[in-house]
Structure formats: C-alpha cells, structure tokens
Amino acid sequence: MSKKALITGITGQDGSYLAEHLLSLGYDVHGIVRRVALEDATRHFTRIAHLLDRLQLHAASLESYPSIFHVISRHDFDECYHLAAQSFVAESFADGFSTMNTNINGTHYMLAALRELRPDCRFYFAGSSEMFGKVSEVPQRETTAFHPRSPYGISKVAGFQLTRNYREAYGMFCSNGILFNHEGARRGFEFVTRKITSTVARIKYNLANELRLGNLEAKRDWGHAADYVQAMYLMLQHDTPDDFVIATGETHSVREFCELAFAEVNLDYQDYVKVDERFYRPAEVELLVGDASKARRVLGWKPTRTFKDIVKEMVREDVAALKSNSG
Ligand code: GDD
After folding, report:
1. Is 277 a known active-site residue?
2. Domain 188-220+251-288+304-326: what homologous superfamily?
3. Model confidence over 170-200: pLDDT tens digits?
4. Is 105 close to ligand 1, i.e. is its CB under 6 Å away?
C-alpha cells in the first residue's frame, strides 16, 4: 500500500517541489490549504496546478486547532511535512504578532493533534538558518547557538524547540531541518532573489528601469529548493529522528547575486540597482553559511545545483515568462 503524506504549505515553493517528489515516489499526497485558496484556485494554486488531479487538498487553518484536528483525524498519515508559515522576514517586523501566532501556535497545533491521533506519524519541521541570526561561529552547524534577529527567527526557534520537545517527551518521530535559503523559479516575488531576477527580466523588456534594494552586503548560503525538499524526505526515512543543517557551504552577497543576474542578460547591475533605505531591516542577519556535513554523512544528501546554476535558471525562467506573455 502506498504511504500517505500530509504537507502544510503545499501551495508554496517548497510544498510544490515536495509534492512532486513524493508523487514520483508513489505516495498518496494530501495538503492543507486555506479555505480562501480553495475558493480561488486559479490564483492560489499556480505552483501546484499541474498536480491538482493527483493531490487531495483539505481546507484548514493553522490558527484553528479544531480544523487541523479534523483533517488529521480523517486519514492515517505516515508522514507529515509542516512547511506552512509566515516566511517573509521583513513582514515579521511589520506584524510580529501574526507571525508568532501562526508560526508558533500552528506548529504546536500540528504536534498536539498528531500526538493525540497519530503518534506514529513521522513529523518534519521546517526550521531555518534565520535561527542562527547574529552568528556565533562560521560556518553554522547543528550545534551552533541560536541568536535570532527577527520575530520570524524567534518563531522558528520556538517551533524547533517544540518539535524537539515532542520527540524527547513523547518519543514521537519528530525531525527538524535547519534549511539555509533555497530558491528557484517558483520563489515568491518578495524574496530578494526573485525580486532581482523578475526585475532583470522586466528591465530587459523595457518594463522597468531600476531595481530598488536594501542591504547589498548581506551574505547568504543560497541553494536550490528542489534539492532541499529531498533532504526533508530523507530525514523522515532515517532510522531515528534528528536535526540536520541543509546548506551548500558557499556564501554570496546580494550584490554578487545582482552582478550575475544582470550579466545573464548582458547588463551591468550598477546602472540599475538603487539602494533604498525602505528595504533595510531593523536588525539584519549579516552572514549565513552552513555546514551540511552531518546530512551528507548520515542521510547521503548533497546539493546538486551551484549558485551560478540557480541565478541562471531564475533569470532565464523570468525572461522566458515575459517573452511568452508579450506574445
Ligand atoms: N526581500 C528583500 N528585499 N531582501 C533584501 C532586499 C529587498 O529589497 N534588499 C536586500 N535584501 C537582503 C535582506 O536584508 C536579507 O539580508 C537578504 O537580502 C535575503 O532576504 P530574503 O530573500 O528576504 O530572505 P531571508 O534571508 O530574509 O529569509 C529567507 O531565508 C530563510 C532561511 O535562511 C526566507 O526564505 C526565510 O523564510 C528562510 O527561513
């Protein structure tokens, strides 16, 4: 019989790649989505439109324990991937209360409902390198201390600790991924990589003439989301639940990303990029670079795409999308 997986955040970048991956392995894939998304499917399901006839979607809200309890009570899930969250760091400064509410309580509700109804279901929590924040060592690994710098980072530390506590207190199979930034052509437009590549495409087609950004010197360890969802899957196949850093081990600045992205369409980023204070954060995470040697050793996971591959793919896809739209 095929395994049954439940994905929260299935309409997002990672959810869509993970759903594809699990379907390719013969899983019966279920997703939790908001009621409003079901009502306006064409707008909300763009990343999973090609999978819709193979998925089972259930309406529920991370803010409502009864709605989550109801979905989990209906199916005998083997694995649960909890990816749903308010995931934009800048927004968490604008409305820290909603971010905390959704991210912390949502994770707690998932864990509590599983404990009550399906204690044998394996649970994955989408932890983040934002938990390291003001980093205490370079590169960051599983043992590096957390020092989050935003309400988002704080909410992820709480989710991480809840997940670990359910593992230790109730013996449940609960694993944390500590994923560094991961991108791809399905990335949301608010994140810096997609903001850059989509604007590069617009500039190329004379639909924009500048790109306004905040801190160009921030450094991130950027991998590809399609590689990273494989790590999530591997964590739940391992013999024992554990915590794993998932990263490429390379770091690049926002400036370098701009340089490569503009060069991809033969333009010089310096002619278009304007620094705009509005996009600075009240507290910044200056440098992230991860050491994923534990995931490599224990899970046999390693990234397959380089920084350059990712920038190229994202620019090409955004240029191609505009080309096909402009007929
Ligand atoms: N979004 C954005 N927009 N970021 C900008 C801009 C801008 O105009 N200008 C500079 N940046 C800088 C941010 O200050 C940050 O240092 C860096 O670009 C990356 O920002 P984001 O792409 O928004 O991602 P993030 O690093 O804050 O968070 C992402 O990665 C985390 C894992 O480390 C998100 O995907 C999180 O959900 C994830 O947990």
Report:
1. no
2. UDP-galactose 4-epimerase, domain 1 (3.90.25.10)
3. 999 999 999 999 999 999 999 999 999 999 9
4. no
